[in-house]
Amino acid sequence: MNIAETISTCFRRYANFSGRAQRTEFWGFAAFFFICLPLSILIFIWPLIFALLIPTLAVSVRRLHDTNRSAWWVLPPFLVVIPAPLIVFSAWLISVMDKDDEFRSVAFLIAVLFFVITLGCCILILVLCASAGTVGPNRYGPD
Hints:
It contains 6 helices and no strands. The chain is mainly α and 143 residues long.
């Protein structure tokens, strides 16, 4: 499966959270998502991020199903990733507007801490999705 087929497959299965996804399907769409993410942030195309959110969740769930893991593993990383830009932007805004150095330091510390937690959650889901799938049928469907 090439990258175009992978992206097409993920959009055809836009909100399909059942079944399984092989590593090629997951990593192809993950590459597409990680290319689109900084571009959409730089040019302020937030609808693109939201349009990619559901298929990214769906392919992640199907990939976890292929490794015989529950979809619940996807929840913590996405709950942390979604508010991350708002928290980091708020901390930056506070540091620019407020002249109190102590308050700026606290805002910066919160932003860094949230960034580290977000990064850790993203690494966790990527490691889980990188593991080999179950050979043969598992509780989530056929291979």
